[in-house]
Amino acid sequence: MNNENEMIKTDEMADAFFDGRIRIIQKKSGYRFSIDSMLLSHFVTIKKDSRVADLGSGSGVISIILAHRFASSRIEGVEIQEELADMAGRSVRLNDYQDRVRINHCDVKKVRKIFETKSMDAVVFNPPYRKLDSGQINPDHERAVARHEVKGALTDFLAAARYLLKDWGTASIIYPATRGAGLFYNMRKNTIEPKKVRMVHSKMSSRAEFILVEGVKGGGEELFVMPPLFIYEEDGEYSAEMKALFKDISRPR
């Protein structure tokens, strides 16, 4: 593994996950990835020898976890913010995945400039989901772009997925449950048929916060609804499934 001290800037730190098997460089203060990236990374299933696009890759956490979970995969991260793309690239080198993971500094609306159509077996994304008119935008620019539809909306990510995916390729997405109807509508509009769905709740007593969806490009009408996932027990501790997730996600397949 590469030397951390040569990879990390003074305003950054390398956070270790899964008993130190993965290290992700993040800002000490500012944009940091959240649990929804972990949930999506665990939800995704990838066939052997797949080529995968991680759209809006941010710090590179999803790209790196997928490379770790699926040892034969090749991951192409796409990130519009140059500083985050650079940081993600350094995390890739820190974990010695540069032979299978590449971070591209690119707008998802312009993926056709660097990729051929139908060149991906799978696409994964955790898109910005706060509308520009839905409250105050975070003053931190990186956080604002990652969370608000400043430089890309769901429709842009789905259009990129439609262009990139091979026929019968899969798109895996996490999105707010309250906007699930719009997600389904726009997936089908882009010929990506929802096939597998899981609702994510903070606690058993709370309403769903996120929806995890896997769609198939050109797929037929048949939807599998998984049991719900609960992040916390009522006492605030992680649920048994979440504890298992943090263990299972570290096991290469």
Brief descriptors of the model:
253 residues; alpha/beta; Rossmann fold; nine-stranded mixed β-sheet; 8 helices
Explain this structure to me?
The protein has one domain: Rossmann fold (3-Layer(aba) Sandwich), CATH 3.40.50. Helices cover 28% and strands 28% of the residues. The protein is built from eight helices and eleven strands. The strands form two sheets. Strands 3, 4, 5, 6, 7, 8, 9, 10 and 11 form a nine-stranded mixed beta sheet that branches. A two-stranded antiparallel sheet has the order 1-2. α2 (35-43) runs parallel beside α3. The longest helix has 13 residues, at 82-94. The protein starts with a helix and ends in a 5-residue tail after the last helix.
